[in-house]
Amino acid sequence: MSADDTTNIPRPEGYKALLANPYLTGPIKFVLPIVIALAIFAALYLIEPYQQFLVISGLLAAYFVPPAGKESIIPIAIVMGYPWWLVTLAIFLLDVAVSLFVVWNFDLALKIPLIGRVLESGMTAGRNYTDARPWIRRFSTIGLVLFVFFPLQGTGAMNGAIVGRLLGLEKARVFACVCTGSLASSLIIAFGSDVLLDVYQQNHALGIGILAAIVVAVLAAVAGLKLREKRLRERSPR
């Protein structure tokens, strides 16, 4: 073997250059999140009876339609008899797929007519949210996790990934923050809903009382946040 032949042997750096090729990684980044989402429904089709598969598929599809969100879809699914861990896993993996798609394909997705309009509305909501809460910019990583964690309308994986891009965070950090907030939020809502359902089945009055207290607390917190945002807007210079 000649010296020239030895210099032509592929080195590890060659693989990195291959993975950095946009003509290879571009299609993968676009298709992989879609494959993950389809795999979720395929797995549910295999493990659930057909009628139950149709119901939970409808709930997961409704998850992407405002004003639905974790705070409504997860409790409904659990009340209908689905295991809390299954609902948590399905919602979390959907958030993984959505956040990957936005993080990897944000600029390209903006050019797609329907998806682009959805992302633009998410950008508007994200800017309004961060403008009303300037601490998110100061504590960008923690702020993004909390943004995704709190089960409020417009604070899901897609808008969380958009906010991360608006904050200028690295793609890997945005993805990690969205996944952390989504998993924590989904677990708490699902497990709490399951426990509350057990309490209600054993004692109807106690279950209703706990649910009413939770609803009142959430409404009070939302009202307090809205009032604080209004005061901040009134104080801010025009």
Automatic annotation (TrEMBL):
The chain crosses the membrane at residues 30-47, 81-104, 139-162, 174-193, 205-225. Keywords: Membrane, Transmembrane, Transmembrane helix. This is Small multi-drug export protein. It comes from Methanoculleus marisnigri (strain ATCC 35101 / DSM 1498 / JR1).
